[in-house]
Amino acid sequence: MQLRYNYRVYPTPRQQRSLARAFGCARVVFNDGLRARQQARENGEAYLSDAGLSKRVITEAKQTPERKWLGDVSAVVLQQALADLNVAYRNFFTSLTGKRKGRRVAPPRFRSRKDNRQAIRFTKNSRFRLLDNGRLRLPKIGDVQVRWSRDLPSEPSSVTIIRDAAGRYFASFVVHASDVPLPAKDTEVGIDLGLTHFAVLSDGTKVTAPKFLRRAARKLRTLQKALCRKVKGSQNRKKAAVKVARAHSRVADTRRDWQHKLSTRIIRDNQAVYVEDLCVTGLARTRLAKSVHDAGWGSFTAMLEYKAARYGRAFGRINRFAPTSQTCSACGRLDGPKPLSVRSWTCPCGAIHDRDVNAALNILAQGRWESLTACGAQVRPAPVPALRREAGIRPGAARCTARGAEGTSDLQGGENVKSGATPVAPARGSSPR
Hints:
Strand order of the largest sheet: 2-6-7-1-5-4-3
Structural class: alpha+beta
Strand content: 15-25%
Order of helices and strands: EHHHEEEEEEEEEHHHEHHHEEEHHEE
Low-confidence stretches: 376-384, 386-433
């Protein structure tokens, strides 16, 4: 399994200028490649291959006075920028043909120097090194100080240097990590995600939603007002924008840390975890959009999925249209839809249900059923071919049955025939057998 390990890096002012130059060169190569393919399409020319595009916008461009400065950065950085462009085109084409699942992917677009996030990638070919003194040596940049919060499980295959909107620098290593199965457990859990309670487990545990964004709303509002008062294009406005970005990054980091701890605890304590496949994109278009984004259901379920695969646990998503809140978990009776204001209800069988706990129990039952049938086992009676006389209703069948004593039944022909009479005509639109 491939994993990413992120670390904070602290480049010197000179190294920051070198990184800014590398960010700009990678952006220019990406835009030049995109512009070349768009022009080829408008002129009716053939699709530019990856090798031909690399030769045009990198190798030949370095020989021109306009792009001579591309030689000041590592060639691997420029090649990886074109690789990102090729991946973007591939995702767009597979989305058009329907081979890619999920939302429709838009075609690649030009990168802007004003983007808040900038990134470059170094692979093994660039010969980046992890030094014994704990620094990261990057070609044509230097030895960058790294804050090692934990050890890498193996030698990294690539490293991505990222500068976020808050002005922080990170090194993201891609490593191959072996699976580490945890001791087997005999417990399974279904999780119902919500807003009042972030997660309600099938064992009755309720996790209160922390609402990190709501708690930081006052400070964010103050910083945003200060940003709006600044003159556009001024240095004070840039400083105010960085303050806003730092406040948002603090909220995002706190939420991510909390979700990592909760997901790790759930995976460690249960052998199988089942969640509901929520349409977060659709819910984000409603009046609850701010609360939905603050909850972060998508990132949390993604953490559960990859941690279950790594630690030898089972993970499943049930159908989002399953009536988990309408079905009695005791008798299975479908009681119908209920408004969100109804938090508890009584089934005619006498069971009193908490709405969220009942939904978590139904998610657990549905996940168990789908996991048992996922291997292809036959859980329903096999289909039995119907007899010819039972295959359908034909005009005159009742009349012929009532007079069956007067005639004989031709089972092979599938028609009831009266002695000395002609067969009954078949139904309109069907062919005689």
